[in-house]
Amino acid sequence: MAGKIQCFGLSDIGKVRETNEDQFIVADVNKSMKVHQTSVGLNHHTRLFGGSQGTLLAVADGMGGHAAGERASEIVVETVTAFLLNTMQWYFQVDDVHDEETIEQLRQVTSQCHEKLSQDIATSPQRRGMGATLTLGYVLWPRLFVVHVGDSRCYHFRQGKLEQITNDHTMAQYLIETGALSPEDAVDSQWSHQLYNVIGGGDQLPEPDISRHPLEMGDALLLCSDGLTKYITDARIGEALASDAPADEVCRVLCNEALLAGGDDNITIVVCRFLPGDDDENFADLDTTDMPIDQRSTQLLSPNELLQERPTDPE
């Protein structure tokens, strides 16, 4: 299909934190070939690239003191990248059968991230307890596959409507779902940033949400850490994506608004637009720019621990 993907990602340390524990990646995944010798008119050791196989978008928000959070999110993004390149099977057609196989393979990525964190802790015990969220979008046009653990988010925008397609793995959200807390009270609740499902953070394996979503020309995606959604409403995010502003401008405007509103956490945003193009233009012509990455401390509790510790409603 004619068209192109326009993506941009940025991460800002914010106004309070001493380090940036967020990480992100925007990448075009494609086949390549390195020429060692040939009799045709190519230089030896030339690398040739084929058509795009997919687009990777990911945001990870680390937790843990003494730079452990920064290290945790870095390991998660590095592991995701290696997994897509070396473990995921590549498909040359998109159909329901291959979709299910893709979902089953993506289910492995969070356990691999957890294992890598465990290996790092084994060599650096001072990092024990470090962990990270992961919100991953893998675009195989016209499908989006989402892998999600934690409270970073993925939004899907289409024809003026914004939908949050991930579910926050916070104690506040858990209490809302069990009827113990109202959505209105959850906004300022002490449980709103306490996670029960992360990568790392202890011995418990993460339980990822895996979902598949159809994409159409004109759609947009936004992935972010909670440093954005702490200050910027869904309505404002939808308004920004509804504009004709390019992906980089949307990221910068929303980041600046979050900084002006408080900016007490790291802020990471990835925006991806699916734009019409010329008939001879490959759809996966990825137009992307990123910015340098540069502390948050998140408490990890299980739902049972929360209910035991919560004799009365939080003030």
From TrEMBL:
Q: Name the SUPFAM superfamilies for this protein.
A: PP2C-like
Record-linked SMART domains = PP2C_SIG, PP2Cc
MF terms per GO, please? Answer: protein serine/threonine phosphatase activity
User: Zinc-finger: present as a keyword of the record?
Assistant: no
Could you tell me which residues belong to the region Disordered?
287-315
Instruction: Supply the InterPro entries for this chain.
Output: PP2C (IPR015655), PPM-type-like_dom_sf (IPR036457), PPM-type_phosphatase-like_dom (IPR001932)
Enumerate the UniProt keywords alphabetically.
Answer: Hydrolase
What transmembrane ranges does the database entry give? none
Transferase in keyword set: no
> In which domain of life is the source organism classified?
Bacteria
Residue span, PPM-type phosphatase domain: 4-274
Q: What is its EC number?
A: 3.1.3.16
What PANTHER family would the database entry show?
PROTEIN PHOSPHATASE
Query: What is this protein's record name?
Result: Serine/threonine phosphatase stp
Q: Which gene encodes it?
A: stp_2
